[in-house]
User: What shape does this take?
Amino acid sequence: GLTEESNRECATALSLDPHNFGWRSCAVAAMARDDYDGARGYLALDPRSASFSATGSRSRRILADLAQSG
Assistant: This one.
């Protein structure tokens, strides 16, 4: 569906311009399919942004919860 399409477009965009911090929004699409490593990669493109801080904190909490339950 749309999540897969979004992830494909994000991967293409990243491959064409791997340093563009604008791709950080692709972290949302990655998290939607439980790809937290991929989400971290997108967020790391702009570590000083508010998006990174807020979403980074959220993804760390999600990862911690998953580690405890698994």
Remarks:
- The helical segments are 2-16, 26-32, 36-43, 50-69.
- The radius of gyration is 12 Å.
- The mean pLDDT is 81.
